[in-house]
Amino acid sequence: MSSRKIIIDTDPGQDDAIAILLALASPEEIEVLGITAVAGNVPLSLTEKNARIVCELAGKPQVRVFAGCDAPLARPLITAEHVHGKTGLDGPVLPDPQMPLQAQHGVDFIIETIRNAPPKTITLCPLGPLTNIASALLKAPDIAERIEEIILMGGAYFEVGNITPSAEFNIYVDPEAADIVFKSGISLTVMPLDVTHKALVTKERNDAFRALGTAVGAATADMTDFFERFDKEKYGSAGAPLHDPCVTAYLIKPELFKGRYINVMIETESELTLGMTVADWWRVVVFSFIWSVEFGGLEAMVDEVYLRHNVRGKGIGKSILKRLFRTMAAHGVHSLSLEVHHKNAKAIQFYKALGFRLRQNYSLMAMEM
After folding, report:
1. Stretch 25-35: mean pLDDT
2. Cβ partners under 8 Å of residue 311, min gap 6
3. In angstroms, rounded to a whole number, what is the distance separating the alpha carbons of residues 147 and 285?
4. Which residues of 194-210 are buried (b: 16+ CB within 10 A; e: fewer)?
5. Domain shared by 294 and 180, yes or no
6. Which of 310, 345, 360 is the last residue of a domain?
7. Do 306 and 350 sit in the same domain of this protein?
8. pLDDT tens column, 164-182
9. Which of 310, 338, 360 corresponds to the end of one domain?
10. Do 282 and 227 lie in a common domain?
11. CB–CB of 315/323 below 8 Å?
């Protein structure tokens, strides 16, 4: 099965960063055609910079990053430094990016890429306000029927809002843009607060990230350490919600998620409920609104993907195995064997990258210490 071609539209944001890291570590499932930055959690000058920082952290400086819109369609920008810090990526100390920002405007990149690709082959993955996506649809209405799907993080159904009692941040920042996207007729899958608040990074999870012993693991732990302080103080939650990584996780393992097709409209006028995603089970169904995730499976998927990341870019997988082997050797065990089907090329490639070798029957992989 070929990887799914996506454009990530983002306003990094610690949780955006983790979503990007997961995507860039999953080339078998996801082909990232480019990343477009939008103003949201912090101003555009920081979100485009942060996107490039994350690409370099992932060891993927070849991924193209484009700056998009610096303000919502019809109202002043609202940012979230109180959650994400002054830089948007507060927590780890990360170097300024060396990779260039692309000269083309992010909206034009979205339009050009969709027009030049076969119809229904590109998925848009917005992780922030929907300004860039709506702007592309306004500028080039013909692309709507060519987009395979939009999978976005935004909105809330049973959950209360996280910027006002009735609205989630991404929708609230640019409700007019959200209204355009939700009325576009494009196949839409929504990851609202109902599901993202079930996906929490706990202290144990952060400890596991740090135990990887690499820059990626340490930076991720530092990001979520900083990010979670807001939710702990305001809501008393057990950790930081993985809002945006739910989009990437859905691309990799959609079977972890449950939802239903419903009708959703965006409130654009009310002072009290501006930006509310008004979900209605009784009108004509339009969108797939996700409301639950199997968290144990999500954790296992994150572990697997971070290990892949590390094997490809940082050698983390081998360091984990070396620690495992030292423990095994202390107990008199000096080899490790795994049963792998000889036709499972992906698994064979993965374990070879860790240092395993095939035995003569081609179905058993072993690694000697």
Report:
1. 95
2. 317, 318, 350, 353, 354
3. 19
4. bbbbbbbbeeebbebbe
5. yes
6. 310
7. no
8. 999 999 999 999 999 999 9
9. 310
10. yes
11. no
Q: Do 193 and 175 fall into the same domain?
A: yes
Domain range for residue 55?
Answer: 4-310
Q: Are residues 145 and 232 in the same domain?
A: yes
Hunting for tokens 């027009």 — which residue is that? 115
Q: How far is 8 from 50, CA to CA, in rounded Å? A: 13
pLDDT confidence bin for 331, thresholds 50/70/90: low
Catalytic residue among 82, 84, 197, 243: 243
The per-residue pLDDT for range 272-323, each reduced to its tens digit, is 999 999 988 777 666 677 878 887 777 777 777 776 655 444 444 455 555 5
* Same domain, yes or no: 212 and 94: yes
pLDDT at 24 exceeding the cut of 60: yes
Domain count, the chain: 2
Can you tell me the distance from the alpha carbon of 305 to that of 309, in angstroms, rounded to the nearest whole number? 6
Sheet of 65-67, strand order: 65-67, 30-37, 4-10, 122-126, 147-153, 188-191, 287-293, 257-266, 277-280
Same domain, 238 and 342: no
Task: Estimate to the nearest angstrom the gap between the alpha carbon of 98 and the chain centroid.
Answer: 23
Residue pair 290/159 in contact by the 8 Å Cβ criterion? no
pTM of the model: 0.82
User: Does 105 qualify as catalytic in the annotation?
Assistant: no
Question: Which tokens go with 255?
Answer: 């079977």
46 and 174 fall within a common domain: yes
